[in-house]
Description:
The complex is a heterodimer. By secondary structure, chain A is mainly alpha-helical. Helices cover about 65% and strands about 5% of the residues of chain A. Chain A has helices at about 5-15, 40-60, 70-90, 100-115, 135-160, 175-210, 215-245, and strands spanning about 30, 35-40.
Amino acid sequence: xxxxxxxxxxxxxxxxxxxxxxxxxxxxxxxxxxxxxxxxxxxxxxxxxxxxxxxxxxxxxxxxxxxxxxxxxxxxxxxxxxxxxxxxxxxxxxxxxxxxxxxxxxxxxxxxxxxxxxxxxxxxxxxxxxxxxxxxxxxxxxxxxxxxxxxxxxxxxxxxxxxxxxxxxxxxxxxxxxxxxxxxxxxxxxxxxxxxxxxxxxxxxxxxxxxxxxxxxxxxxxxxxxxxxxxxxxxxxxxxxxxxxxxxxxxxxxx
Amino acid sequence: xxxxxxxxxxxxxxxxxxxxxxxxxxxxxxxxxxxxxxxxxxxxxxxxxxxxxxxxxxxxxxxxxxxxxxxxxxxxxxxxx
Lengths: 255, 81
């Protein structure tokens, strides 16, 4: 893809603070064979994954009957995720899907907050800049396609080829819309997450550019709030889609 | 970049955001109003109503965000430049 920095050149023209640079569409490119990948996304994703791994290992390594400290926190997170899944998928079939929905929620949540809380901009890269992994469209598209695979798998596992009956269930006239829905689901999932996170970071960056101190703080707080809500929305929708595939009547309409 | 394309892209980006904000604005106003009404009528259900409200607000918000994505593509990754 060919990137051009229209607004970008303008904003980079006056650069009072090195912290407030806006770099959309500039990436740290890594080449693996014929593939070009965005290196900064991988670096931050690995850090996020590492954080989550360390937290889970620390919480389970020495489990006590009466939880305290990190174990308490992770048990709270687990209960939260379990209740979320149970509310969407229902009492009977929710259990096998807790790990999937929970992983989605925790990864997106920690990734979003890492973009706002960790001062990535202090670390200089040769090109591009470190930021939340979810502000790259490739990350969110990958997550959304995983959700698509998951609900197809859920439907096939439960009903076999009978899963396709839901496309013509009320009437075959709605077949194109039913097929279209399978494409719009991952599209809206990925765009929602990507747009929200990128918008947060852009608004904060523009405000820091204008007034470097104190004024961006309320917007940063709002950013933390929306980041958490977006992680919740993504996990909730993933669970809702899986539930829809398991039920197969397509009564719920969730976008 | 061709100045005509640049000007058109900037105007299109502004229109994308501005127009995409109208509908969700009305929708969010409606939803919040109804939620306040519900809480006033049944204060004990406040927690549940607030949770649902925040979730639905995020869905409406995403419509504006789609406009924002288009605007960002036009400004930073313009395919016609």
